[in-house]
Structure formats: structure tokens, C-alpha cells
Design brief:
Among the domains are: 142 residues, Nucleotidyltransferase, domain 5, CATH 3.30.420.40; 115 residues, no CATH class. The protein is 40% helix and 17% strand. β14 and β15 form a beta hairpin. α3 packs across α4, α11 packs across α16 and α15 crosses α18. The longest helix has 26 residues.
Amino acid sequence: MVTSRNASDRVALIAEKIRAGKTALGIEFGSTRIKVVLIDDTYETIAAGDHSWENHLENGLWTYGLDEVWSGVRDAYASMAHDVDTAYGERLEKVGSIGFSAMMHGYLAFDASDELLVPFRTWRNTNTHEAHERLTDLFQVNIPERWSIAHLYQCILDDEPHVPRVAFMTTLSGYVHWRLTGRKVLGVGDASGMFPIDPTTHGWDESLLRRFSQLPEAARQPWTIGDILPQPLVAGSEAGSLTEAGALLLDPTGTLRPGIPMAPPEGDAGTGMVATNAVRVRTGNVSAGTSIFATVVLDHTLERLHPEVDLVATPAGDPAGMSHANNFTSDLNAWVRLFGQFAEAVGLTLDAGTLYGTLFRTAISPEADADAGGLLNYCFYSGEFLAGIEEGRPVFARGPEASMTLANFMRAQLFGAFSPVKIGMDVMTKDEGVRVDSLIGHGGIFTTPKVAQKILAAAFNTPIKVMSTAAEGGAWGMAVLADYLWHADTPLADHLDDLVFADAQSTVEEPDPADVAGFEEFFANFVRGLPIERAAIEAIPLER
């Protein structure tokens, strides 16, 4: 009776918060899922919705259609609004604040009539190698293949006919925000994956803008680079409000009212930092999903140029180093689906949690050899810059004397998935002496207790913390940033420490020396075996 009354009281309390607008909404466009999270003023998730989607290969380039963007976000939003109605008996007419985030980088270019010039080119594309090399040399700052400026410059080098017509370019989060508010702005974290940011002004690096504009092939264009980029904004900045047309784009039922304040749109790296409380200097996080990146807020400027490390910014504008690998869960998920199909073939129906949990736990069981028994796995669905691989071909390989067991197979899957990101992380910590006080795991893979945490501790030879919010994801982090609009007088790091994560629970996994040694042996074999991947690229053509 008491439990029932408490539950009823909680529902009534949350319903009142919803009516009063004591909420924040975060929406994130991930690579395989669009997720919507509604939080209350205690940062608890009170409703959620999602929509699955997949990028697709068109003319050799990875893309999503803009119609998919809008149909997907409407579906995810409707699911969340239905959750609100079902759980609390409230129609969602207002929200305290809203924020959008998305996968970083890529290329969305529009003409003066706001028409998309070429299909959206995502971060996954690696056709920009020449632009990466030339701009890195010109700027003396690493410009990864994924970055928006690399995409634009490659279009210039390739004489693509649309280039002279470019009037505006942005990221996916910036595009959605623009359509909903009319404002061409971008959170500084997401902006730092378009073009280098000046850490003192938190705006574009003006000297590098000039250097780009002085390139003969850029000088011939009818635009200048500074005029076609969005305006970077730090977290907590005023970024516009939801227009009437924008409200209908998001909620075609007309229930959601316009006028809601909007946070600067951010990238998934920034929302991952927030979701793991890793925005303070010498903190870091590892965000694992379709891609994986390890980000550390730097305690000093890197002494040398390192192509393996992206220099980005936190949502507050502080410099951070990132090791980014294009590939992580796609191949892993494909193998798990295969095991699921086998289970069905023998008459077993397993839910996803049981299937993943059972397979993952074998990887850290006593039956697993520390080095994965000589098995190798390359999870490269797309090119992987860190490994020097321009295209992707998933490959599993072994010698005839390797120990082919389920435990070793799953261990090789996880070891192989974490291997590329280790390359850039080693550059920061071993070569540049970057200090890390805490490293936090973030993403759905960490929901299976201990497994990915233990593997990552072995890969980086450092303690790995996983917080109770690990599975909440970037949408929750974006909701926190949306709420931060009302707390911007407090530094973001202090706000997260003092309010958002004050009572957060966490677990820490210390590196096991045997696991560390095993991973190092696997990693050496992984690097030595990369010619296998290159041979697969030559032998297996892409379907175009």
C-alpha cells in the first residue's frame, strides 16, 4: 500500500513538472539510432523514445537522406510523447528547453536558396585523404578525413560542379537546429570537428581561415570560408527558440508549442563528455557505439603534430585530444546476430540482453586465453585512418594452430574493436605525456557488467570507471546541456560536479596485469596482420 502510494505520488509530481515545463529534452542522431530523452529538474529520465536507422552507400559514399532525418526524428519524438501520455497522463505541450546533437563531422552544403547541393556525406567517408594531407600540412594542425573542411576542400580539388554555389555548410545537428530555429549556429564542440577552433576566443581560428582563403583554388570561389560556416557557441549560450514551423516539423500533431529555448547544437563527442562528467581538465571518456573515440581534456598543448590525434573542444570550449576510430560495433553486432540465428535454429529464443550478455561474458571467462588464443578480427566496415586502411572489409583470421574457442572468439572481437582507438590514445599518454586522472566508459556496450570495462582497462592499462548513466547516452547528455541554459552562470564542470553527478553511482575496473600483457600481444599481432585487411580490399570489391 505504501509502495503504491509512493508510486502514485511520484507520477503526480512528475506530471506537475511536465505541465510547469520543469523539463529538458535531448535528441541525438546516432549512427544507428535516433534517441529522444526527456529529463526533469533532478536530471532523471522521465520519458524516452527512439528510431532505428542505417546509413547507406550511394555512389561509393555513406549517406542518410534528409527525408530520413525528419521521418526518423518525428517517429522518435512521437514515441517519447506517447510515453509521457501513457506514464503521466499528460499531453506534451511545452518543454523547458531543447537541444539537438548528432554524429560529428561530415558535409552538408546548401545553396543561396537553402537547397541541399549534394547528398549528406557522413563522417564515415574516407574519400578525403588528399584534402586531409594538404590541409594538415598547410595548417600544421591535424585535419582528419572526417572533418567538414576536409570534405569541402576535397570537393574543390575534385572540381565538383556544386562548389561555387555553396552558401552555407554545417553538420547534421547544425542543420536540424537551423530548420527548427532559423539560426545558423553550432555548439563549439561540434564546430571543432568542422574547422579548427581558437581556444582563447572559442570561435574559428582566424589565422587558419585566412590561410585557407589564400589557397589559389579557394580564392577562385565566389565565397570565403568564414562566410559559409555557422557561428560557434559555448554551452549555455542563447541559440534561438523553436519557431512555429519548427514545432510542426518536430511534432506534426501541433501539440508542442513554439517559443521553447534551444541550446547550441552539439556533437556526440561533447554529449559523451557531459554524460560521463568528463569536461574538466585531465578527465577523459571513451564513447563506444558504431564508431569509438577516446577523448581527454588536455592539461597542456601537444608539442608535435600527430595525425592520430584530433584536436577538438569540450562544449565549454576547452581543448581536448581525441583518438577516433570509424569502426566499433557494426561487425560485433553482425556476429551476435549470427549466434542468435543459430539459437533460433535449435529452438531457442533469446532476448538481446541475454544473447549479448552470454557471449560477452565468455570473453573474460577462465576459458579465454589472455591473448585471445591467436585469433584476429578486423571490424572494418569502412576505412580506418588510424590503421592506414582507406576502405573497409570486415575480416576474421586465424592460423591453423590458433585456439578456436567461443571464449577466444569473443575476446578477439572485443580486443579487435578496441585496438584502433588505442593507437591515438598511446600517442597522447605515452608520447606526449598527457595526464589522465579518470577515464570513463560510455555507451550501450558497457551495460553488460564488467566485460567491456575490463577489456578497455587492459587496452589502455588504466582504471576504467563506468557510471550509472553509462547507458543513457548522448541524448541524455544533450538534455543536460539544454537544462544548462538556466545555469550558465556556473562553469559547466562545476555544474556537473555539484548538481548533475553529485549522487551518481559508479564502478571502477582496475587493469589486470595478465590482461594487459595479453592485449599487448594481441595488439602486436593485430598491427602485424594489417596486410590481411589490405589484401581483402584488393580481393573483395565494394558493391556500388
